[in-house]
Design brief:
Elements (H helix, E strand, L loop, with lengths): L6 E6 L4 H16 L7 E7 L5 H11 L7 H8 L2 E5 L5 H17 L6 E5 L6 H10 L9 E5 L7 H12 L7 E3 L7 H12 L1 H6 L5 E9 L8 H26 L8 H13 L14 E7 L24 E6 L11 E6 L6 E8 L13 E7 L3 E9 L7 E9 L2 H6 L3 H11 L8 H20 L6 E3 L7 H7 L10
Parallel strand pairs: 1-2, 1-4, 2-3, 4-5, 5-6, 7-10, 8-15
Antiparallel strand pairs: 7-11, 8-9, 9-10, 11-12, 12-13, 13-14
Bound molecules: NADP nicotinamide-adenine-dinucleotide phosphate.
The site of NADP nicotinamide-adenine-dinucleotide phosphate (NAP) has 20 residues, from α1.
Amino acid sequence: MSQDTKALFIIFGATGDLAHRKLYPAIYHLFKKNMLSESFAVIGTARREWSDEHYQEVVLDSIEDLTESKEHAKAFAEHFRYQSHNVKDSEHYHTLKELADTLDDEYSIEGNRIFYLSMSPSFFGTITHHLREQSLVTDNGFNRVIIEKPFGTDFESSKALNDEINDSFDEDQLYRIDHYLGKEMVQNILALRFSNRLIENSWNKDSISNIQITLSEDLGVEERGEYYDKSGALRDMVQNHVLQVVSLLTMTKPASFTTDNVRKEKLAILKALKDPVITQDENTEFVRGQYASSEDGATKGYRQEDKVAPDTLTETFVAGKIIIDTDEWRDVPVYIRTGKRLAEKTSRVDIVFKSTESDLFNDQPTLLSVLISPDEGIELTLNNKNIGPGMHLKPTQLSNLRSEDTREESPEAYEKLILDVLNGDETHFAHWGEVATSWKYVDQVRRAWDGFTDSIPFYPALTMGPKEADTLLSQQDHSWIYKA
Ligand SMILES: NC(=O)c1ccc[n+]([C@@H]2O[C@H](COP(=O)([O-])OP(=O)(O)OC[C@H]3O[C@@H](n4cnc5c(N)ncnc54)[C@H](OP(=O)(O)O)[C@@H]3O)[C@@H](O)[C@H]2O)c1
């Protein structure tokens, strides 16, 4: 347990949105639960000229709704120092090192350092190079680097980035954040699959008809138009979150629950993905879409968003049929869809089981739904006899949804992931092999779409995407379980 884990955090991008919204609250939660040693300190860095006092005010503001008392919050904020720093300027790293060494002594940290790169990935190579060159990396403790997404924009760029980082840090020092891997219900997938014999024994092609993953957002691109228009839903969501969830849902049981064994089995799935067929007709295994204005005209279309090209072909929606080319899974399509300005914000997985082979009853497929967010829990829909005469069936739902109180009390993804970094546990972080293999898969779709320059299917904002996403399933007599 990390009550004994001493650490100095150095956060690059300390004045940014992520730090304010997620990182300071996450570190505070750990502090509040006594999961941080008293021997911890944080240096925040960014170009802005802030004083320590101002920085501590910012930290206090970010945890305002979470604090036990003013004194407790103040005791927390006192562990924070600010150092104005341009990451491109090598001189600044000397000043940073001096402050880091001073705090290391002051808090008896014994050389343990966590470098959190909460900045544009274009700086990651520069920062890691300087950390090593200017000796911010210690000899007497651990040195771990937390890396935010996106990790490259395709396989080539991600490899270049990885090579650059590997010049200074080894793979086992790198913690690539995929915040989906920190979500309770995503972590619960392996627990559900491998601790319940009932589920374990039916988690196979004989029992499962198809798997459906929906990660939908009701918001548009907001102020992120510039980034998003270059990225699109495929790069933003499928390469990382969606494929990570696919691998957890279909990986073979690991020999033991160790980081290496879990990662090995996840990677085996990603390597087994069949090359997708991408066409502009109904044979395609991936469809894209872009939101137009809503049916009532109240919500604008993607092309009208700020910092988005008026004739852009960037997809704000992706649906796909993923085939895992193994004897175990070849016949079980994994349908995925994700997008912006969809009817509702939800992340969920629906496992659609096959109907029974007997014709005793007119049964419906059994359904297991894993609700990831905003609802968290599981729902199992079974056939039951309807009360009364005759043998008519009625689907019955067994539901175990976590209450609002439980959800509020349960740790946020960032809190758990930062604790994992403190403990040196890499299980819930993406290994380079997974990242590389995912990019190679997604790049095939990207390349094909980049060749389709005439048009893109539109969908009205606040609906569940273009009709092509329904055709993808109906060709195999399947349909989306989740309909908002
Ligand atoms: N925000 C989110 O919800 C979210 C979600 C998932 C992933 N991410 C990822 O997390 C990272 C940070 O995102 P963000 O939203 O916090 O970005 P942001 O608000 O734009 O913050 C960027 C930070 O970088 C600093 N910075 C920029 N250039 C610098 C330089 N040359 N030297 C030193 N500091 C510099 C900025 O501060 P100064 O201007 O003061 O220098 C600021 O603190 C990105 O990789 C992003 O993709 C963010």
